[in-house]
Amino acid sequence: MANAAALLFLVAAFVCHMRTGDAQRFCGKSAVTFSVRKTENVVGGQPEYVVTIGTSCSCPMENVRVWCDGLEHSAVPLDVSKVEVQDGMCVLKKPVAKGSPVVFTYSSVVPVNFRVFNAAPRC
Fold it and tell me: pTM for the complete prediction?
């Protein structure tokens, strides 16, 4: 009986490890997605944009850092509870989860070219 319980535990641990391993392998920087939409608002002579940062990963993505050069000149104050700009890099203040994207607005003469620098799955 003890051998059967030990075997069941090992199989369950193996399956759990395999699922986590698969998620980590497919949940890299490329799993982070961006959507930028121009609104009808103009702030300080600059068009306003809404950016949505999401993920296709089943695990929440943490430590998300995104190149966002130019965002520091936004006439729209950024929501510091969601994003902070450091030397042309946006640092997200909370994880990005599938179905729960980080959404914020900014203004710029031209849309910012968002590119992922870092993101790590938390599985």
Answer: 0.76
